[in-house]
Amino acid sequence: MKKIAILAPETAVPAAIVDPRYMFTAVNQFLTSTGKPALFEVSLVGATPTVPLNDGLFTIHPDQTLDAGTQFDLVFIPAISGDIPTAVQRNQALIPWVKKQYEGGAEVASLCIGAFLLASTGLLNGRQCSTHWLFAREFRQMFPEVELVDGSIITEGPRLYSSGGASSYWNLLLYLVEKYTSRDMAILASKFFAIDIDRNSQSAFMMFQGQKDHNDPEIRHAQEFIEQHVNEKITVEQLAEHAAIGKRSFERRFKNATNNTVLEYIQRVKMEAAKRKFENSRLNVQEVMMDVGYTDTKAFRDVFKKITGLTPIEYRNKYQKV
């Protein structure tokens, strides 16, 4: 019997506590319905006997508290909500418990922005991690020693797992069901919960927001220039001259401020504009390509797929208004 703990942090997203429990108890039912023994013993674990969520709108009653002394095989850290540094601080009591569980042999999995709590343990230092794309910059600022993998649905390390944003954690749950049971059981669970079992990227859902929360006004001015001239071909030399900064110094400052090279930033701004056009107009691929300053169809297609994980036609068909 695998012992699974689902932590109940203060400020947790309620669904991220309920859903793992639902998944693994449902798999137990699938197993017993075919005459096989249940494999999972699922417990909610909290710092206190009652844990308020959503400013008291919900209350969780954990099955046990941190001091119960149970060693688990798998620990889930649900997504947290609200101001992230504050949420991490409010849940400091969970950090040493998670570390102790890991040191005792447990696997640890964070769901969505539960990655902030997992990273706070230090277990991810020097390792890779996934989280919600919207919080990527904040994560990198708080945990520079962790390698955040942009766009990934699931990241796996030594007995450590993390998932991408929002519903991406369902794919991590399926991944662990398959690991502990079988591919057939994971497929059954995917059909029961209506989940695309092999989705491996959140790139198509990512929205590029410009990363302007820095203190370099010349670079911010260059970013605004790129966004205002999305339909033009823009060069690094042109931007450096516009900012009155030497090319090498401009490139270095741009990367430090935005966490993107100049070329990466230009591409991401143009592809974000292309995505909006596919979503909100009836323009064809060629027309959108021209509107965002591309003349080479292959180059446009390659960059678009690299950033979104979909070809322009696939993206248009998926998101264009009927």
Task: Sum this structure up briefly.
Helix content is 47%, strand content 13%. With 322 residues, it is an alpha/beta fold. The chain has a seven-stranded mixed sheet, sandwiched between helices. Strands 3-4 form a two-stranded antiparallel sheet.
Model description:
- This protein is an alpha/beta fold and 322 residues long.
- It has two domains: 2-205, Class I glutamine amidotransferase (GATase) domain (Rossmann fold, 3-Layer(aba) Sandwich), CATH 3.40.50; 217-319, Homeodomain-like (Arc Repressor Mutant, subunit A), CATH 1.10.10.60.
- 47% of the residues lie in helices and 13% in strands.
- It is built from 14 helices and eleven strands.
- The strands form three sheets. The chain has a seven-stranded mixed sheet with strand order 5-2-1-6-7-11-10, sandwiched between helices.
- Helix 1 runs parallel beside helix 6 and helix 6 runs antiparallel to helix 7 (183-193).
**Which percent range fits the helix content?**
40-55%
Structural class: alpha/beta
**Can you summarize the main beta sheet?**
7 strands, mixed
Along the chain, the helix and strand elements come as EHEEEEEHHEHEHEEEHHHHHHHHH
